[in-house]
Amino acid sequence: MRTDMLTSLIIANTEKDTANVKTVGGETFEPMIDEEIRGNLVDAFVAGTDSTANTFCYITYYICKHPNMKQKMISEIDSVFSNKPYLTSDDLLKLKYCEAIIKESSRMIPVTNFASRYMTEECEVAGYKWVSGTMFHLNIMGVNSHPKIWSNPEVFDPDRFYNVDQDDDKNKYSLIIFGGGPRICPGRKLAMGELLLLMASVYRHYNVELVNMDEPLKIVTASANNVQELKVRISPRIN
Ligand code: HEM
């Protein structure tokens, strides 16, 4: 069997031998019908395209504004590429400074400002009782720029995430670009892999510069923070 997403959706919960129904802990799981498979694919395209494309624009903007950091990133990319024609998934794990840049760019401008939760039961949050039917909006932008959590939150500084313990509480709960809990973004690992590969592939071969270094990033905020325009000058690198 191939391991692509469509195959995985088609064979999900399919017993290979006889029956098409699987029972786990008394619950029955059946293969998805075509509409469900289509729905999952549409979800992935809708949630996974603009999010990653916009994040790549934020990254481009911030590193072009900070030439020293850009140079450090390029040195890392060159050292991991070495003389290889392409990168493996293991190589991507070595791009620690690039990963820090992705996180810091997303902290400065998250793709979405809010994640929402609808309470189906009465609950207690922050010492208050809330009735069933309450809708909570998690303020992602607010958390990612909270001065109690981040020193100088308005300053772009990838070192916040470079060579630090990724599992400490601050990293786990204070940077919520992908949401959290059972509804956390299911595409987060794919998105990180895509962004690392794109950064490495572009900056290995090209110089990218902002056409106008003084122009602020033009963003239109709807459900996502969409980059309206980002003019860059691209030229081949001379190695
Ligand atoms: C940089 C890229 C991305 C960012 C910043 C991002 C961010 C988010 C956020 C904040 C949520 C809400 C999570 C929550 O409510 O706790 C979400 C949900 C979701 N994302 Fe992503 N995402 C990205 C890429 C992707 C990709 C590549 C895919 C799929 C291929 C994807 C598929 C989804 C889906 C299906 C949901 C809804 C999950 C649910 O409601 O159970 N996302 N994403």
From TrEMBL:
InterPro entries: Cyt_P450 (IPR001128), Cyt_P450_CS (IPR017972), Cyt_P450_E_grp-I (IPR002401), Cyt_P450_sf (IPR036396). The keyword Transport does not apply. Its cofactor is heme. Heme binds at C185. It holds the Pfam family p450. PROSITE patterns: CYTOCHROME_P450. Keywords: Heme, Iron, Metal-binding, Monooxygenase, Oxidoreductase. One of its GO terms (molecular function) is heme binding. Signal peptide: none annotated. Belongs to the cytochrome P450 family. This is Cytochrome P450.
